[in-house]
Amino acid sequence: MSFRRKIKEKMRELENKTVVITGATKGIGKAVADRLQKSNTVIRVARHIEDDGVLNFACDVSDGEAVLELFDRIYAAHGHIDLLLNNVGEGLTGAVEFLDQKYLDEIVKVNLMSVVYCTKAALMHEKQPFKIVNMSSIASLGVQPFRTMYTTTKAAVSAFTVGMRQELYGSDVEVCAITMGDAVTDFGKHHHCNFTSSARYGDRLSRGEEYGEKRTARPVNPKDRRMPIDKAAKGICKVLSKKHFGKYTYFIGFKYKALYVVSRFFTMEGVSNIVRRIFE
User: Fold this and answer.
1) Minimal CA–CA distance to 30: which of 48, 52, 12?
2) Beta carbons of 182 and 227 less than 8 angstroms apart
3) pLDDT in tens, 104-142
4) Predicted structure pTM score
5) Which of 202, 238, 257, 280 has a C-alpha 20 to 30 A away from that of 67?
6) Closest CA relative to residue 43, chosen from 20, 68, 15, 75
């Protein structure tokens, strides 16, 4: 069987499946939902969406009680899901010392607890085999200064994924994470930033700001190194189409796979030193 034919065979496995995607109205979530809806029932979940009670559900998935009600409604409408993609997430930039408590609480709830809540609710409802996929980030491999809360929550998502794989080992539920880096979306444009600084941090925070602006420059220019969103969505859908999840995480994009391989040769302290020097 040719390579192309093998890929097509894998993609056919997602035909006629029921897929729940959180954060599905913009960015990566929307791109994946648009790609899958051609041959699947895609249930889009977002905080701001016109709720029709069938394919579109409005919900703040950082609220545990709201998530339980959400899955009650989803299962009342569909009875079963084949795959849950925990995609919703947000960013936060700034020195932890100066970040408002509201944003510290919010990023933990949105990036981590939404994954926990949705996973728990799906497991409580689903009685048939299904899959859970959690979106992590390449940032979880090496914490960036002044993006500490974002990278911490994504590292926690990866750890949660490993834990759930262990808990569900031998069952009919499969779990994995998807780890990727920057894609051409408005993610960096909309997250909260606080560039308040002090003598304690010198000019490192402003250097971090300049680095971030280069990565998320608008309009997108030919030198933009981020992954095109269509390519990212294609890679994610390829993972979702796998018959079995043989790994705890799958990397999207060659350079991120390469970065992971390189990082395995360094201790956490070594990786931290490399990242820190970028901001010196």
Assistant:
1) 48
2) yes
3) 999 999 999 999 999 999 999 999 999 999 999 987 777
4) 0.86
5) 238
6) 20
Count of Cβ atoms closer than 10 Å to residue 265 Cβ: 8
Closest CA to 18 of 82, 76, 79: 82
The two three-digit tokens of residue 193, written as one number: 């930033």
On the 0-12 / 13-18 / 19+ scale of CB atoms within 10 A, 75 is middle
Yes or no: say if 253 and 235 are a contact pair by the CB < 8 Å rule.
yes
- Encoded amino acid at 175, one letter: V
> In 10 A of CB 195, how many CB atoms?
14
Q: How many CB atoms lie within 10 A of CB 78?
A: 14
Could you tell me which of 128, 146, 129, 147 has the C-alpha nearest to residue 137?
147
Rounded distance, CA 196 to CA 199, Å?
Answer: 11
Alpha carbon separation from 37 to 110, 147, 158, 220 (Å, rounded): 25, 34, 27, 27
Alpha-carbon 157 to chain mean position: 9
Place of tokens 């926990």: 116
Give the Cα separation of 178 and 136 in Å (integer): 6
Query: The tokens of 106 are what?
Result: 């919010």
d(CA 120, CA 134): 13
Q: CA separation (Å) from 96 to 124, 152, 197?
A: 36, 12, 10
> Which of 173, 181, 125, 195 lies closest to 151 in space, CA to CA?
181
Contacts by 269-273, CB closer than 8 A, 24 or more apart? 271/141, 271/142, 272/142, 272/143
Q: Are 130 and 84 in contact (CB under 8 A)?
A: yes
Query: pLDDT band at 56, cuts 50/70/90?
Result: very high
Beta-carbon-side half-sphere exposure of residue 188 (alpha carbons within 13 Å): 18
